[in-house]
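Try this one yourself first.
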């Protein structure tokens, strides 16, 4: 049962990043804000255990899933405005981080046009959860100086790939890994470039597999039907396979020389 809204009190919307998987990946600030909510509009891939943080709230499923039925964005915008305008504290619970491929800008615009206050609480995005699960830093000193996060599918459901950084992480490509392999090579990635695929990153049943750009189609079997992120380039390689950065020697008075990373 949700707490009653007060029409005389201005409502507001709190955008909360739920993290990419298990409920314990939400931030402390996000959990506290969720506990204040009277209405929660939640995404499809958020952990049901998050309900324990807001048992008093009315939970409304507004999830989107690729290639299947989804709540229209205009409907989500209207619900945010409707409930906040009634005086409610509305939590918009988004998987991962709200600002990464979450269509946050459209919902912020709808609220701004309606004169409704809002705030955004960041969360852990799937690329970071995948990097943590595989112990593969997305940046590497001296080799991986740049990182790009890309959605493989455009709004027109067209698959695209690029080579804009030392490491590139592609979201929403899980069902088209074979086509992604071809497009990566067309974009200039050498066939032997390391690729790491993690499906359901952040969940207890996450799966990881290693490939090269030209062998990426083999990942289709393991990750079929599972949301996946695909890391390409320097950040996809296992740390044990990378050359160690150059070191300089530092001395401390009264102690033997010790290695120190060169700046």
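Now uncover the answer:
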């Amino acid at each position: 049962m949700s707490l009653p809204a007060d029409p005389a009190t201005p409502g507001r919307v709190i955008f909360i990043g739920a993290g990419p998987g298990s409920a314990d990946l939400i931030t402390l600030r996000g959990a506290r804000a969720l506990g204040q909510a009277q209405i929660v509009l939640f995404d499809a891939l958020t952990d049901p255990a998050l309900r324990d943080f807001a048992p008093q709230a009315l939970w409304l499923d507004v999830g989107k899933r690729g290639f299947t039925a989804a709540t229209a964005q205009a409907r989500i915008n209207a619900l945010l405005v409707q409930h906040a305008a009634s005086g409610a504290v509305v939590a918009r619970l988004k998987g991962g981080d709200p600002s990464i491929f979450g269509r946050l800008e459209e919902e912020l615009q709808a609220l701004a046009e309606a004169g409704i206050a809002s705030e955004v609480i960041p969360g852990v995005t799937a690329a970071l959860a995948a990097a943590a699960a595989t112990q593969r830093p997305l940046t590497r000193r001296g080799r991986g100086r740049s990182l790009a996060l890309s959605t493989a599918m455009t709004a027109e459901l067209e698959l695209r790939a690029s080579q804009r950084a030392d490491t590139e992480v592609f979201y929403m490509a899980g069902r088209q890994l074979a086509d992604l392999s071809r497009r990566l090579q067309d974009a200039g990635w050498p066939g032997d470039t390391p690729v790491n695929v993690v499906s359901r990153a952040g969940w207890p049943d996450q799966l990881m597999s290693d490939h090269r750009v030209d062998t990426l189609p083999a990942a289709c079997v393991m990750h079929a039907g599972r949301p996946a992120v695909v890391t390409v380039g320097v950040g996809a390689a296992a740390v044990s396979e990378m050359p160690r950065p150059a070191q300089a020697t530092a001395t401390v008075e009264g102690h033997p020389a010790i290695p120190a990373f060169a700046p």
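Discussion: The helical segments are 28-34, 73-85, 104-114, 126-134, 177-186, 219-223. The first strand starts at residue 12 and ends at 17.
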